[in-house]
Design brief:
mainly alpha; globular; coiled coil
């Protein structure tokens, strides 16, 4: 069932992903030019990297604003295909997948990608970041578990508290409704906290990796993650289309 927040974000996300595709073309073009031309315009590359990173920040800004109205819309997204949702980790991509992508690029020696030419110092810093991010992921996962337990505890607490206040004139339907309302309010606040914590880990991962890379490597990195996100969406849509025809 589509809610107002789900519809708003669906519209925003379609425009956002289209803009991301446009940025991807610019990233690929910049990467190809720098492979041919050894004279790098560092400022031009940095400007492009800043525009793409701001595009990601804009995504989270809108997401957080709408999630405050209805956070459940982001845990059960109507704008994502089943394939996209299968890769989701607390309403978005899992931060540790970034390091797998970098590792895969280096192992496969992707032609034209400067990510295949990381220095030992860069590799060391990225590994340190990977370990740190994994710990933060585990912290988010523990927080989700804590919220689930807290919801059950709040419900039991309110049950005991309200039982003592139920009057003869108050129907059980009214009583149950108040109990559900209290539990639901606590659940929404808890889920919003988990979602924002997960998003913060995503943002710290992006910033952490970009801080280690050179401007050209940043271009290649952003191109790789943008391409992956767009391709998963395209594959998901194709699978949905085939499923509907069968």
């Amino acid at each position: 069932m589509k809610g107002k927040v789900g519809e708003k974000f669906s519209e925003f996300f379609e425009k956002w992903i289209c803009q991301l595709d446009e940025y991807l073309q610019l990233l690929l073009k910049a990467s190809e030019q720098r492979v041919i031309n050894t004279v790098c315009d560092q400022r031009e590359l940095q400007t492009l990297v800043s525009k793409v990173t701001q595009h990601y920040k804009d995504y989270f800004t809108i997401k957080w604003c709408l999630a405050h109205e209805d956070v459940l819309a982001f845990f059960c997204p109507i704008w994502g295909s089943p394939l996209e949702n299968a890769y989701s980790w607390f309403t978005g991509w899992k931060p540790s997948t970034i390091f797998k992508l970098i590792h895969s690029t280096g192992i496969n020696r992707v032609p034209g990608s400067s990510l295949a030419e990381l220095t030992q110092e860069q590799l060391r810093k990225i590994e340190e970041l990977r370990v740190k991010i994994r710990l933060e992921e585990e912290k988010v996962e523990r927080e989700m578990e804590r919220q689930q337990v807290a919801v059950a505890d709040r419900k039991m607490f309110e049950l005991v508290r309200l039982t003592g206040r139920v009057r003869d004139s108050e129907t059980m339907d009214q009583f149950d409704g108040r109990l559900v309302e209290v539990a639901l309010k606590g659940l929404m606040a808890g889920l919003e906290k988990v979602m924002k914590a997960a998003d913060c880990v995503r943002l710290r991962t992006l910033k952490g990796v970009l801080d280690v890379l050179t401007p050209l490597q940043c271009v290649n990195f952003l191109a790789a993650i943008s391409m992956l996100q767009i391709q998963i969406r395209q594959w998901g849509k194709r699978r949905d289309s085939i499923s509907r025809k069968e």
